[in-house]
Amino acid sequence: RKEVEQDPGPFNVPEGATVAFNCTYSNSASQSFFWYRQDCRKEPKLLMSVYSSGNEDGRFTAQLNRASQYISLLIRDSKLSDSATYLCVVTDSGGYQKVTFGTGTKLQVIP
Amino acid sequence: DGGITQSPKYLFRKEGQNVTLSCEQNLNHDAMYWYRQDPGQGLRLIYYSQIVNDFQKGDIAEGYSVSREKKESFPLTVTSAQKNPTAFYLCASGGTSSGYNSPLHFGNGTRLTVT
After folding, report:
1. Which residues in B lie closer than 8 A to residue A87 (C-beta atoms)?
2. Tell me: the pLDDT tens digits for A46-66?
3. Which residues of chain B have a CB within 8 Å of the CB of A41?
4. How far is CA B91 from CA B9, B22, B36, B61, in A?
């Protein structure tokens, strides 16, 4: 089983739609969780951190379920500019900040 | 402004030549990382460094070398031993605070083409 798993997609959705991505992780001791966005041929950029209580930033909502070991990202009212690959990132404690990236879920928002 | 700077953005080399990619950060982060990304693929860890003068191999370290003589700098050398060096190389840095791991910050990347 991969340490961090995501559905690669692509998810093709119309403008204005709501879309949700899930990500599962294997290490129950994982500490911190993040969603990154990566545009084609660019570096990943932090979209939002994911907190145990869930958190929202505008049209984006992130949830963490430690019992089931998954995190989710919900995008409401999709815009064309949301088209990108969304990376799930999990960090563990230990001698260094072990960071594991999912392979990403591709989103294409269609006019 | 604080950030991570990678240079050059594009690099072309002939097969058999070593090449060094630069990565500098002024975020005062302790940890620095090098990742490789191939088209349509995820990020794979090459090397990481937690403190100055210390670094560890990641998942795909063969054919690469690094140094960490200064906190701000973590250059990556792609040697002639790397069989498929053409890729997008990303440098990142991160620190810890308040007992929680802070997110990584990435440079703009270097796109290396070896022919």
Report:
1. 42-43
2. 999 998 888 999 999 999 999
3. 88, 111
4. 12, 9, 9, 14
